[in-house]
Amino acid sequence: MTTRAYTQVLVGTDGSPTASCAVHAAGAVARALAVRATVVTGWYRDQVDDYEQIGNTGSAESAGARNSAWATDMVVDAAALLRQSGVEDVRTATPEGGAAEGLLKLGDDRPGSLIVVGTVGLDRTADRLLGNIPHQLTHHAHSDLLLVTRGDCDADVTWGSIALATDGSPTAALAVQHGFELATALGARTTLLTVAADEERGQRTLDATGVTTDDTRVAVGRDVTGALVEASRDYDLLVLGNKGMSGPSRLLGSVANSVTHDLPTDLLLVNTTR
Questions:
Q1: CA-to-CA distance for 57 and 54, rounded, in angstroms?
Q2: Which of 46, 138, 147, 176 has the fewest CB atoms found within 10 Å of its own CB?
Q3: CA atoms lying within 13 Å on the CB side of residue 133
Q4: Residue-wise DSSP of the chain
Q5: Can you tell me the distance from the alpha carbon of 175 to that of 243, in angstroms, rounded to the nearest whole number?
């Protein structure tokens, strides 16, 4: 396998602790791949959080100006952090509207981008129904998506061990390829991981991939999602294809969809619909 460089890293931030970790993670990937990092914060012209304050200022237009200024402050601070961490090419974007929509458009405009976000609300049903940013991205991004679960990052985010999940399918092979290439750039140890009813069946799946990694592992269990989630606790990053994240299979409940709502570790969700 040859190393595939993402053309750029897009990271969304709102200043929250998990978003700050996403910025650190984006910086680590951008440095390893020597690509541009673009910080994105969306804002709404008519979104008002403090009605008394709006009454004092006299118009919703002033609220829009404050929201725009807030978004600018967010991206400027995050961009400064990225530059301090050693990322040479840093850009910012403050699209009017939802941050998810802005990240999706920027990713579509430049194929091969990697989108990085934190996971606040991804595991809460109410937030998922309202459509928070990571939830929207998991179901609509055409780019690969790095979901950062950690919420306390005073230093750079690193991944020493990466699990590449496979079920032996062609779509899983694409996810393994992307994960392997990123792991190579990051200098991380790789484990080819599968879930099977027994060790023998799992080993046949691993052998059939033809992929050489530092280690292999069969997580034995009939509950694929549960076994995958439990096994992923032993790694810094899980790589998984997004098969079933949209369309009818999403409603029926795919493994990828279930795993994203019960993440014990960071997740690289690879778009396998290309």
A1: 5
A2: 46
A3: 30
A4: ------SEEEEE--S-HHHHHHHHHHHHHHHHHT-EEEEE--B-TT--S-HHHHHHH--HHHHHHHHHHHHHHHHHHHHHHHHHTT-S-EEEE--BS-HHHHHHHHHHHSTT-EEEEE-TTTT-HHHHHHT-HHHHHHHH-SSEEEEE-----SS----SEEEEE--SSHHHHHHHHHHHHHHHHHT-EEEEEEEESSHHHHHHHHHHH----SEEEEEE-S-HHHHHHHHHTTSSEEEEE-TTSSSHHHHH--HHHHHHTS-SSEEEEE----
A5: 10
d(CA 152, CA 21): 7
Q: What is the mean pLDDT of residues 84-103?
A: 93
- Whether the model clears a pTM of 0.90, i.e. scores above it, the answer is no
Q: In the predicted model, is pLDDT for residue 123 greater than 70?
A: no
State the pLDDT at residue 254.
79
**108 contacts: CB under 8 Å, gap ≥ 6:** 142, 143
Domains in the chain with CATH codes: 8-148 (3.40.50.620), 161-266 (3.40.50.620)
Pair 117, 19: CB distance under 8 Å: yes
